[in-house]
Amino acid sequence: MTETLASDLAGKSVLVTGASTGIGAAAVRAFAKAGCRIAIHYNASLNRAEEVAADVRFAGAQAFLVGGDLRTSAKARDVVDTAAAHYGGLDILVNNAGGLVARAPIGEFDDELFDEVIDLNVRSLVACCAAAVPHMRKARGGSIVNVTSIAARTGGGSGSTLYAGAKGFVSTFTRGLAKELVKDNIRVNAVAPGVIATPFHERYSTPAMLEAFKSSIPMNRLGSADECAGAFVYLASNALSSFVTGQIIQVNGGQVM
């Protein structure tokens, strides 16, 4: 169904950051089904990124791997420019790279942790957006899809205040950038996943925490990365969402409405 409705995506160039696992990898596979040409960004997980690229090519789409640590603005811009150069332009940017880094209560914050959370979740996203805009202006349009989190609405779970605050920035930045770029025919939106069964929670959440999260979800289960993927295709496609900008799509099983 998605492949037919989002047929305008065929041949579009897409960069997905943090695309080697989890939600990013699921988004890549969904864009492949829509016939996109995809730049798959990774940092440390080259082997996993190559597996995702193999899936893309098996689906009959083009895949290009681009590596780099996005926590520095210069590298983030380089990743975007490299992807755009490979495909002769950039139509869609999905800013998925991010992470909790560590669970820590307020008394255990230090400058190192603060900087790492902000660099990973905020600086990287802002730099990627800034680098993508000239390419999209040249193409006379484009779509940016940021990844925020349910934590931006709830304040996050135990020890994730810094992460939640960073994602709150992403949500607000998304709305502001949408206003700034609407005149350029560039739409800016975001996806806000809830509790999704990905390596993120395997790393940062105990089974007891996940069980507690599940009890607060009306659907009474965790989500999957594939269940987030359709939101990215929807927001990227002008055929599906041409009158949608500055919006945060919640994918959380009803946990926050």
The rounded Rg comes to: 17 Å
Number of H/I helices: 11
Question: What strand line-up does the widest sheet have?
Answer: 3-2-1-4-5-6-7
Question: How is the quaternary structure best described?
Answer: single chain
The CATH C-level name is Alpha Beta
First and last CA, distance? 26 Å
Low-confidence regions: none
The succession of helices and strands, N to C, reads HEHEHEHEHEHHEHHHHE
> How much β-strand is present in the residues?
5-15%
- Report the CATH architecture: 3-Layer(aba) Sandwich
Write down the domain tally.
1
User: Helical proportion?
Assistant: 40-55%
SS class: alpha/beta
Number of DSSP E strands: 7
* CATH third-tier fold name: Rossmann fold
Q: Looking at this structure, what is the CATH superfamily? A: NAD(P)-binding Rossmann-like Domain
Shape: globular
Biggest sheet: strands, sense, closure? 7 strands, parallel
What is the residue-mean pLDDT, rounded to a whole number? 95
